[in-house]
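Support case: magnesium ion complex. Customer-provided input:
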Amino acid sequence: MRGAAITLEGVSKTYDNGLLALQATDLGIDAGEFISIVGPSGCGKSTLLRIVADLVQPTQGQCLRPGEFETGFVFQEAALLPWRTVQKNAELLMELEGYRAPDCAARAAEALKLVGLAGFEKSYPHELSGGMRMRLSLARALALRPALLLLDEPLAAVDELTRDVLQEELSALWKEAGFTAMMVTHNVHEAVFLSTRVVVMSARPGRVLRVIDVPFDFPRAPELRSSPAFAALTGEVTAALRHPVAEQVSA
Ligand SMILES: Nc1ncnc2c1ncn2[C@@H]1O[C@H](COP(=O)(O)OP(=O)(O)OP(=O)(O)O)[C@@H](O)[C@H]1O
Ligand SMILES: [Mg+2]
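Agent response - structure generated as follows:
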């Protein structure tokens, strides 16, 4: 499967209450890229993701999504249905999209295997750890075989070790499946480890401050995290995030 290409042209969003959440944003995303979005809390990252998902309409500008394809969305909260088994939770989005029951079952089972949850099909969400719930949320989106996967701080709620492991697994999955990924995160290391490019946004109303290329080869080994080149790039992203603060201080 090939990933979707996305183009944002002058996209801005003012919510009904008059709040300007996002300023004119231009961004071109190639098929199969992994883009991370970092920026201060409230700067419009989730708004941007929801516009790309077509869940929110921009006030100005447009988001071009050429072609017909499935979009998977992994929310910050796993948002699982507690009365459904792991298998039935994994089938949910396909079911809502109107897929035939046997296809839902087969593809959900395949996605659960991909995220390492085979054997837990009959469990219920409350019987899973936080990391496993996250995996289930990911499986639910992957079952759609999305050409575009949108992730809103998917790993924020898991401990650091689990987070590292999940990052490596997510990176491998993305490489193998070929979808385009767009992920919001507050973690600069995570953004650099996973991405082909990191988008740095300003404080609200958000705008794109910088787009930073991440030149490391894939697959990315865990050792990358302790390399000087990795430290230099995370330093560059952090500096870009702090840039507007420095401006304010010197003004
Ligand atoms: N449905 C809505 N109606 C009105 N205002 C909203 C709505 N959704 C978000 N906002 C406002 O828009 C701004 C951007 O919100 P958004 O959720 O996109 O930020 P964010 O960058 O994802 O923040 P965080 O990092 O805290 O998740 C915030 O000030 C928020 O209060
Ligand atoms: Mg958000």
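The two ends are 50 Å apart (CA to CA).

Case will auto-close in a few days if no follow-up is received.
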